[in-house]
Amino acid sequence: MTKKLSIGILFGGRSSEHEASLASAASVLKHLKQDKFDLVPIGITQTGQWMTQTTPYELQQQMAVTTQIIDADMQESTQHTIVVDTPAPSSPLMQHPLSSVAPKVDVIFPLLHGTYGEDGKLQGLLEMIGIPYVGCGVLGGAISMDKEKTKQILRAAGLPVVDYKSYRRAELERNPEKVLDDIEKNFDYPCFVKPSNGGSSIGVSKVRSREELRQAAYLAANYDHKILIEKAIECREVECAILGNEDLQASVVGEVIIRDECDFYDYHAKYVEPSTKIIPALISDDLALEIQEQSIKAFRALDLTSLARFDFFLEKDTHNIYINEVNTLPSFTEDCMYPKLCEASGLAYPDLLERLIELAVESYEDRQRNSSSS
Ligand SMILES: Nc1ncnc2c1ncn2[C@@H]1O[C@H](COP(=O)(O)OP(=O)(O)O)[C@@H](O)[C@H]1O
Ligand SMILES: [Mg+2]
């Protein structure tokens, strides 16, 4: 009988997407096949303390303000998780992240969205330790997390992105009127203001006046050292999932239907009252094919492996498409878009989780082939 792989499930973390991460992890813990895998939950608090012997639900309880997105059913399922005998640290807080768990874990499955999870930093740590992990590597994660850098690379690869301009937080703070003047010179209202590094629509605003612009710029600057201004596109929002390392599979295309009362696809529309998803999207076969092809091209241009979700704007009047952004660790509950797109393309959620673990081992083995310079 082959040995069961032991999977470290990482969740929580210091990003503004902490709570979304708890929901993703709860779902993965529930659905990973326990006859094949031992599960080691590893939580990271909002202040960055690493803990074993915890669950996403327990971390949710520690949050000061919470919308409680893990419901009672999910709480129950995470409590059935097998916790392997990771040595109990003398205090529940682990001083050296992963050092005591690493010898017991074969693969890390990070379910950390946003900064310190999706942006290459964690991936660097895992490579230093030498442990296989699910998801893309350091470079792909870091670039894809930064919306400005992503757009620069996609544009250089001939892929369509919305007109944008970035400003440094320091410029804004030093001379706000000059920055606001420059934005008004380059963009009409309404326009979008967002942190270059961010996610879950946190810090994103649609603005219609100079006063709203000022507030939105300072809001975005709370989350990153760079803010992006983008032309607002009147659009439908469609998404495509890519899975694989060398042989890439593009999923069917899905659409998020944003309710009329929402100004855009904001945090509320994502997590609190989740928007309806239509899979496959009601678009022509040609357009779906173009979206799939562009997603694969973008996946390669950004040096990604394993998985990524590509979010597109489909302009209502012109039917032009633009790649809005790339998520290398997209929200991952079974009802979220990435798993749903895979399911609609023939890969059920538990099988997707298993496939991602196989891809993690494959990537690790591929990296081991590189001769190091010393
Ligand atoms: N340029 C834009 N035109 C139209 N809608 C936009 C634009 N930029 C952002 N949005 C809206 O804001 C949402 C969140 O923006 P996005 O850039 O995807 O940030 P996040 O990484 O936080 O999801 C989008 O899904 C869309 O609804
Ligand atoms: Mg988005």
From TrEMBL:
Broad class of where this protein is predominantly found: cytoplasm
Ligase among the record's keywords? yes
Q: Which GO terms describe its molecular function?
A: ATP binding; D-alanine-D-alanine ligase activity; metal ion binding
Cite the InterPro entries for this sequence.
Answer: ATP-grasp, ATP_grasp_subdomain_1, D-Ala_lig_Van_CS, D_ala_D_ala, Dala_Dala_lig_C, Dala_Dala_lig_N, PreATP-grasp_dom_sf
Location of the ATP-grasp domain: 151-358
Which pathway is recorded for this entry?
Cell wall biogenesis; peptidoglycan biosynthesis; Glycan biosynthesis
Task: Give the enzyme's main class according to its UniProt record, as a single word.
Answer: ligase
Q: Which residues are recorded as binding Mg(2+) 1?
A: D311, E325
- Cofactor field: Mn(2+); Mg(2+)
Binding-site residues, ATP: 147, 192-194, 200-201, 230-237, 324-325
Location within or outside the cell: Cytoplasm
Residues annotated to bind Mg(2+) 2: E325, N327
Which GO biological process categories is it annotated with? cell wall organization; peptidoglycan biosynthetic process; regulation of cell shape
Q: So what does this one do? A: Cell wall formation.
> What family does the Swiss-Prot or TrEMBL record give for this protein?
Belongs to the D-alanine--D-alanine ligase family.
Family annotation (PANTHER family): D-ALANINE--D-ALANINE LIGASE, D-ALANINE--D-ALANINE LIGASE A
What's the protein name? Answer: D-alanine--D-alanine ligase
Native source organism of the sequence: Dictyobacter vulcani
Tell me the organism's taxonomic lineage: Bacteria, Bacillati, Chloroflexota, Ktedonobacteria, Ktedonobacterales
The primary gene name is ddl
